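During the reporting period the student researcher (J.K.) took over the structure-prediction task from the postdoctoral fellow and processed the backlog of single-chain submissions. One of the processed entries is reproduced below for the supervisory committee.
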Amino acid sequence: MADIKVLALACGFDFTVALTEKGLYVWGNGNQGQLPTDDPRGMLTAPTKIPLNLRISQISCGCLHTALLTSTLHLLFVSVCSLMLLLI
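J.K. obtained the following structure tokens:
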């Protein structure tokens, strides 16, 4: 990721989410379902790009959750065994 511009960075208890000019990257402990991956309970030891068909404009993390706001104002909330897409 050395040559990728980071636009925003958010950290949870033991995981990190980065919004970059190339897309969304996550790494760390996902054992509580807080990472938006195909296997949300895994450990990612290196930044991993998440393939999304949504344009993310803002990111936020809490202790055990990730929130992503899309450019069309949809809120994607990832937490313990749940994935919700909310209209705001």
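The committee noted the following: Residues 27 and 54 are 19 Å apart (CA to CA).
J.K. will present the remaining backlog at the next meeting.
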